[in-house]
Specification:
Residues 77-160 form the POTRA domain. It holds the Pfam family POTRA. This is POTRA domain-containing protein. The protein is an alpha+beta fold. The chain has three domains: 2-72, membrane protein fhac (Ubiquitin-like (UB roll), Roll); 78-159, Ubiquitin-like (UB roll), CATH 3.10.20; 163-244, no CATH class. The protein contains five helices and eleven strands. The chain has helices at 11-15, 28-44, 92-101, 122-131, 197-202, and strands at residues 2-4, 51-59, 64-72, 78-85, 133-140, 150-159, 163-171, 177-188, 211-218, 225-232, 242-244. The strands form three sheets. It has a five-stranded antiparallel sheet, with no helix packed on it. Strands 1-3-2 form a three-stranded mixed sheet, covered by helices on one side. A hairpin with a 4-residue loop joins strand 2 and strand 3 (64-72). Helix 3 (92-101) crosses helix 4 (122-131). It is elongated, with a radius of gyration of 27 Å.
Length: 245
C-alpha cells in the first residue's frame, strides 16, 4: 500500500480509519470506497480540485496486488463572498445562519464535499429543509483568486409555499355544531408589521424570519376553543428552539 503526490497530509493521516492492511483479500468495491474516502478528506479540507486515482500492480507468482493511491492535491481554497439570490421573502440572515452551522461562511475552508457538482448535496438539502425552500443550489461562481485562493459562492433559493389556510365544519356527538379555521405560516416574522393595508391583505407582511405561527379557531354553538402556537428555531440568532403556546 503506497501513496504518491500527497503533501498536505502524510500517509498515516490518509490511511487511518480506512481498515486497509497488508495481507487482506483484495476487493475492488472496497478499494474504490477507500479512494473516495481519501478524496473526501481533501474536499473537506478545502482542496476542491483534488483528484485521487487508484493504481494496481499484480504480482502473479505470489497472488499479491500492490495498491497505489496517486494524489493530485491542487490548491487549498477558502470561501470568499457568499451571495444569496432568489429569496424574495426569506431574509438573508435566515439562510446564512443555516450555512454557519456547517462552517460554510466567508474565510472558512471551502468544503466542496457538502455541495457536490451533481447537486443535491448534504448542505443543500439542509438549507432547503430549514428554509422550507422548494430547491436550493450552491455553487462556486469564481475559479479562485490566484492571490488569496478564495472561491466566491452563490446560493440560489427557489422559495416554496409556506402559508396555509384551512376551513372545516361538523357536528359533535352531543349535537354541537362546530367549525374550524386553521391559519399557519411557517416563514413568519413577528417584527415585520405591514406598512400598508395592502401588504397585510396580500400576505407580504409578517414573513421572512423563518419563525412559525399557527392559529386554530374552533367556534361552536355550545363551546368554542382557540390556540396559538409560535416557534422560533434560532432564538437570539443561535440554534436554540423557542416554543410558545
Amino acid at each position: 500500500i503506497s501513496l504518491i503526490g500527497n503533501k498536505h497530509f502524510d500517509d498515516q493521516k490518509l490511511l487511518e480509519g480506512l481498515n486497509l492492511e497488508q495481507g487482506q483479500v483484495y476487493y475492488k468495491r472496497r478499494a474504490d470506497s477507500h479512494t473516495r474516502e481519501i478524496l473526501k478528506l481533501y474536499h473537506e479540507s478545502g482542496f476542491a480540485d483534488a483528484q485521487v486515482e487508484q493504481g494496481l500492480n499484480f504480482v502473479q507468482d505470489v497472488n499479491v496486488v500492490n495498491i497505489e493511491f496517486n494524489v493530485v492535491e491542487g490548491r487549498q481554497f477558502r470561501i470568499g463572498r457568499v451571495d444569496i439570490t432568489g429569496n424574495e421573502q426569506t431574509q438573508d440572515k435566515v439562510v446564512r445562519r443555516v450555512l454557519d452551522e456547517y462552517g460554510f461562511a466567508p474565510g472558512q475552508l471551502y468544503n466542496s464535499d457538502l455541495t457536490p457538482r451533481q447537486g443535491n448535496g448534504k448542505l443543500e438539502q439542509y438549507v432547503q429543509r430549514m428554509t422550507l425552500a422548494e430547491e436550493v443550489i450552491i455553487r462556486p461562481v469564481s475559479p479562485g483568486n490566484g492571490a488569496d485562493n478564495r472561491k466566491d459562492i452563490k446560493v440560489d433559493i427557489k422559495e416554496g409555499q409556506t402559508g396555509s389556510l384551512m376551513f372545516a365544519g361538523g357536528v359533535s356527538s352531543d349535537s354541537d355544531v362546530i367549525g374550524q379555521v386553521v391559519l399557519e405560516q411557517r416563514n413568519f416574522d413577528i417584527t415585520d408589521w405591514p406598512e400598508s393595508f395592502g401588504e397585510f391583505v396580500t400576505g407580504k407582511a409578517f414573513k421572512g424570519a423563518g419563525q412559525s405561527l399557527k392559529l386554530a379557531l374552533e367556534p361552536g354553538t355550545r363551546v368554542s376553543q382557540y390556540s396559538v402556537t409560535f416557534s422560533e428555531p434560532y432564538f437570539q440568532d443561535k440554534p436554540l428552539l423557542l416554543n410558545v403556546r
